[in-house]
Design a protein that fits this description.
By secondary structure, the chain is an alpha+beta fold. The protein folds into four domains: about 170 residues, Immunoglobulins (Immunoglobulin-like, Sandwich), CATH 2.60.40.10; about 90 residues, Immunoglobulin-like, CATH 2.60.40; about 80 residues, Immunoglobulin-like (Sandwich), CATH 2.60.40.10; about 350 residues, Alpha-Beta Barrel (TIM Barrel), CATH 3.20.20. It contains 13 helices and 35 strands. The strands form eight sheets. An eight-stranded parallel β-barrel has the order 26-27-28-29-32-33-34-35, surrounded by four helices. Strands 4, 5, 7, 8 and 9 form a five-stranded antiparallel sheet that branches. Strands 12, 13, 15, 16 and 17 form a five-stranded antiparallel sheet that branches. A hairpin with a 2-residue loop joins strand 23 and strand 24. The longest helix has 26 residues.
């Protein structure tokens, strides 16, 4: 391997090892290199801004093959008595020419004040670099590593000396120029901003896989064309064109490697000069996900600010003979019920200026339901509920706190007292990435004096109060991390705004630090968390690395049935993010159990989809303790009315036994059933009508079922405090009426009370 040693020196800031007359020149170069990198970090936000500063720094002060490290300043540490012990578990993840390093601080001995990274061209050597990180952070990112193999170790340092080395890792960086004959994935998030006769384009690089060698911009006079211009802009993610002629332009960008052109990004539209009222552009990126007989359509709005959309459905390509319906809103998602069959779907956008042309047509296949396991899958029927220490029974709670502090509910009795009296021994509590400053600086007893803000809901302080109130009553708490500033669930996985556009490796670093900090926060508050669930309903990805975000689904593909595509494009990207998040939790709370919760019960054909998800997580080395599942909800159409209770429990038992074969138990993280059909689109299951008595029988039979299955370790009723006055879609699935009086189903949980 031929290594640019000067580039390594510049990256690691090793002016001390330079000799002779070159010392002063090199030291100046180092200083400028760090100044540029700091500017790039402070530009946080759109990836293009960071990448632009990064590119400017490379051209101004550093060779193209230089390495730079992204790390915060070292915090103050206490005076050491002895040299620290070596770090452990050094690991490296390579993404293109980026290397993400993480390690674990020594458990015993004096703490380090910083770490020293050593790099060599062969095992045990330090002939490439030896750099002090000037930080106690145990993660580090090196960008633009030269191709070849590098051997790395890390040592702890404090005022008393240097530790021995950690384990050594061999890091192999490929040549991003040829990518082994692979084409790059499509860029994403293309946006255009017009300023006079100048147009600035920004975009994000592919979220995973081979990194592009350069990008090509295509400009057309009509959607999808390149009749105006097509040109290379090099390996940058921003471009400004000046002196652009008055007109309307449709712009796309695509990645290139030595293997050729990748797929186009999304299309954006800009108008330079006069722009009379015109119809919006056709919707972009239509996609369909099938859940039984429910079809979830999603698309991108395109340019032109549409106010609503037309969905055209035909029995053959190009036809609209089955339906042409107006969505009535600017939302870019819609769930609908469909009989088994094949449908051809297009969308049009509408605004006051007119109706667009059709979008690309997609094919939607709705299969006949195959809910009953064939052959029959045996399971333990039991004679009744079997109370056991290995089974957590409880509910998912959140809104009661807001309703009691800022509303007029739960004034006479505390919800958690009522739940505990009826057999709830555990709760699940969601927490967003928001820390609500108002709640933090106000005593909980005075929260009611504050005006309600939506950011309070499930914020760190809000969740802390629920967990504390539960602990005071002897109720165990599980935290599920939304990994979002708002609620996240199947079909909606949006990361914090400040993480937008980050690479997988950079996101993993942020994610590990966030989960560590969150777990440490609750530990410092003296609160014991029994388990952490990473994300919420994560079978289609997490953060923005999902099929509803930065990972583009091929046209017409039903991802619930193309499991290999999910393995190769979604779950392989999700796995390192989950590993980083789990490491962060265990850095602060080593004894906490880790759960992965999906919405995949009744997704796709039979149990193939949820089984494939957990198989993939085990294969990718994601170290989780249990699998979480969501029971289908009746507010949307389902297939459960077409199957007997026996067949449904056979199917569920088949899935729990498969996951049990992976060495993990199953927790029903979310489950509920309506007591009234008023707010449902589904038909009731055969043995349980949508009535108070039917809801109670459903709870009784489900508790009996889960308690008798050896591979089930938990059952949580979803939002038991809901009623129609709180939520219209799930209101009738709660266990209380509008006056906070218990429904009959609540009493069914009393079988879990100690005898």
């Amino acid at each position: 391997m031929r290594v640019n040693r000067r580039a390594l020196w510049v990256a690691f800031g090793l002016s001390a090892i330079l000799t002779g007359s070159a010392r002063q020149v090199e030291a100046q170069t180092v200083s400028r290199s760090w100044t540029c990198w700091s500017s790039s970090v402070m530009a946080a936000g759109p990836f293009a801004a960071s990448a632009t500063l990064d590119a400017l720094c490379r051209s101004a002060v550093a060779p193209a093959s230089s390495i730079r490290l992204d790390q915060p300043s070292a915090p103050g540490t206490a005076a050491a008595v002895a040299a620290p012990r070596p770090p452990a578990s050094l690991a490296a993840t390579v993404v293109g020419r980026r290397v993400f390093l993480n390690w674990v601080a020594a458990e015993n001995g004096d703490p380090p004040s910083s770490y020293v990274l050593e790099a060599g061209s062969s095992s045990g050597r330090i002939d490439l670099a030896s750099a002090d990180t000037a930080s106690t952070v145990t993660t580090l990112i090196a960008t633009e590593m030269p191709a070849g193999a590098t051997f790395m170790r890390v040592r702890s340092r404090n005022g008393r000396g240097l530790s021995g080395p950690s384990n050594e890792v061999r890091v192999v960086v490929g040549n991003t120029g040829d990518c082994g004959g692979l084409k790059a994935l499509a860029p994403s998030s293309l946006q255009g901003v017009v300023n006079g006769d100048a147009v600035t384009l920004t975009w994000s690089p592919p979220p995973a896989g081979c990194m592009p060698e350069f990008y090509m911009i295509s400009a057309g006079s009509v959607p999808g064309s390149s009749d105006v211009a097509s040109f290379s802009v090099g390996n940058t993610t921003t471009f400004t064109a000046v002196n652009v002629r008055t007109g309307s332009y449709y712009l796309r960008v695509r990645s290139y490697t030595a293997a050729g052109a990748g797929a186009f990004s999304n299309q954006t539209h800009v108008s330079v000069g006069a722009d009379p009222c015109r119809a919006p552009d056709p919707p972009d990126s239509p996609a369909a996900t099938v859940f039984g007989t429910t079809v979830l359509l999603t698309w991108s709005a395109g340019s032109g600010t549409p106010t609503n959309f037309i969905i055209e459905t035909g029995s053959a390509p190009g036809l609209s003979n089955l339906a042409a319906s107006n969505t009535g809103s600017s939302s870019t998602a819609l769930a609908a019920s469909a009989e088994p069959g094949t449908y051809y779907v297009r969308l049009r956008a509408r605004s006051r200026c007119g109706t667009s042309g059709p979008s690309r047509e997609i094919t939607v296949d709705v299969p006949k339901p195959t809910l009953c396991a064939s052959p029959a899958h045996p399971y333990v029927h039991g004679t009744g509920f079997q109370r056991r220490s290995t089974l957590a029974v409880g509910g998912v709670v959140a809104d009661y706190l807001a309703r009691s502090v800022w509303g007029d509910h739960w004034k006479g009795a505390h919800l958690l007292d009522v739940l505990k009296e009826n057999g709830f021994a555990s709760i699940r509590v969601g927490v967003t990435t928001i820390s609500a400053a108002d709640l933090s600086r106000t005593a909980p007893a005075n929260w009611g004096s504050l005006a309600w803000k939506n950011e309070y809901w499930s914020s760190r302080e809000y969740a802390e109060r629920i967990v504390r109130e539960a602990a005071e009553r002897g109720i165990q708490s599980t935290l599920f991390l939304f990994l979002s500033a708002d609620a996240a669930f199947a079909g909606k996985q949006k990361g914090p705004p400040e993480w937008e556009g980050l690479s997988v490796a950079d996101t993993a670093a942020r994610l590990r630090e966030y989960t560590r900090e969150t777990a440490q926060y609750f530990r410092d508050k003296g609160l014991k968390i029994a388990a952490y669930e990473i994300g919420n309903e994560i079978d289609f990805g997490i953060l923005d690395f999902s099929t509803s975000g930065r990972i583009q689904v091929p046209p017409g593909m039903d991802v619930t049935r193309n499991l290999q595509w999910m393995r190769d494009n979604v779950w392989n990207v999700e796995a390192p993010l989950l590993r980083a998040a789990i490491t962060g939790v265990r850095d602060a709370s080593p004894d906490a159990r880790i759960g992965l919760h999906i919405a995949g019960l009744a997704v796709g054909d039979g149990n193939a989809f949820p089984e494939a998800f957990f198989d993939a997580m085990v294969e990718h080395g994601v170290d989780f303790d249990y699998a979480g599942l969501s029971q289908p909800y009746a507010y949307a159409p389902w297939d459960l009315d077409r199957v007997s209770t026996e067949c449904w429990f056979q199917r569920v038992a088949e899935l729990t036994d498969h996951i049990g074969g992976l060495g993990r138990p199953v927790v029903f993280s979310e489950a509920s059933y309506p007591s009234d059909p008023a707010t449902t689109e589904a038909q009731p299951m055969q043995d349980w009508p949508f009535s108070p008595a039917g809801q109670a029988r459903w709870v009784r039979e489900y508790l009996k079922f889960v308690s008798n299955q050896p591979n089930v370790s938990g059952f949580f009723y979803f939002y038991p405090d809901f009623h129609p006055g709180i939520d219209q879609s799930l209101g009738h699935s709660g266990l209380f009426d509008a006056r906070d009086h218990p429904m009959p189903a609540l009493g069914e949980f009393r079988v879990n009370l100690p005898r």
